[in-house]
Design goal:
alpha+beta; four-stranded antiparallel β-sheet; two-stranded antiparallel sheet; 6 helices; 6 strands; 19% strand; transmembrane helix; DUF3267 domain-containing protein
């Protein structure tokens, strides 16, 4: 296998810049989503009893996001190695790696799975549960911001040749081509 391109978003753009852009994307997403949903629900009061569950889900959202990346790999019977750590002694962090190279299609599905499995149901739930729409929209907006890096990865994967394989690494990924 020959390396066609090596991609490390944090090295290319910088971690602080990526976090700032993700934050801006979250605010923009909330602004764009809140207006039509609030028009649909009118002056529906928010149920304040949902604040504590909201904080709990918000705390575990990064871990749930990572699990949603892993879920398609498990469904497709791909070997996945999990690493569970605690950051600052209380924040759970899950990272994963695959034992083998993934095809372009599988990598694209894996990168987009959290958006399909968390953001879309969050937006749908904001329409279905009017008392809690604010909480669902905030969670969906934060998740859209978290997924910004995934969207960048998806753009790189999309531009890769059809026969490419993707090798996930801790600091990014490599796009590989079979040697001819």
């Amino acid at each position: 296998m020959n390396c066609w391109k090596s991609i490390n978003i944090n090295k290319e753009f910088g971690l602080q810049r990526m976090n700032f852009i993700s934050f801006l994307v979250s605010i923009l997403a909330f602004t764009v989503l809140y207006v039509p949903v609030s028009i649909v629900h009118g002056r529906m009061p928010n149920n304040e009893a949902a604040f504590v569950p909201f904080l709990i889900v918000l705390f575990f959202l990064p871990m749930i996001h990572t699990l949603m990346h892993i879920l398609p790999l498990i469904v497709m019977n791909k070997r996945v190695n999990f690493v569970y750590k605690k950051k600052y002694k209380c924040i759970p962090v899950i990272s994963y790696s695959t034992k083998y190279h993934l095809t372009k299609k599988v990598s694209f599905i894996t990168a987009g799975a959290p958006s399909l499995l968390l953001t879309v149901p969050g937006i749908a739930a904001s329409y279905m549960f009017p008392e809690y729409y604010f909480y669902f929209l905030v969670l969906a907006s934060i998740h859209i911001g978290m997924s910004f890096i995934d969207y960048l990865y998806m753009v790189y994967i999309w531009k890769a040749p059809k026969c490419a394989f993707i090798d996930n690494r801790h600091d990014g990924f490599d796009i590989l081509l079979k040697a001819q």
